[in-house]
Predict the 3D structure of the following.
Amino acid sequence: MRVLVDLVDSIGASIRFIFLMFFLAIFGFGILVTAGATYVAPKVADSVVDRADRYEDRLEQARRDRELGSEGWGYGAGSSNTRSPNADGFGEDDGSWADDYDSGYR
C-alpha cells in the first residue's frame, strides 16, 4: 500500500512541476512582450516616423519638380517628347548638327 501512495505522490509532484513550468513560461513570455512594448516599440516608431518624413520630403520635391518641369523649368523640362533631344531646359535647341540630321536634312 505504501508503494501505491508513493506512486500517486510522485505523479502528483510531476503534474505540479509541469504546471509550474507552464506558468513560468507564460510569465516569462509576458515579461518579454512587456519589455518589447516599453523599450523596442518607441525606437521602432521613431524610425518609422523618420522614414515617413524622408519619404514625404521626396514626394514633395518630386511634385515641385513635376510642376516646374511642366512650365519649362527644373530637371524635367528637357524630357518632353515634343522637344528635340538637344533641347535645353528652356525648350530651345542648342543648334548642333544633330538637329538637322534628326529632321531629315543631310
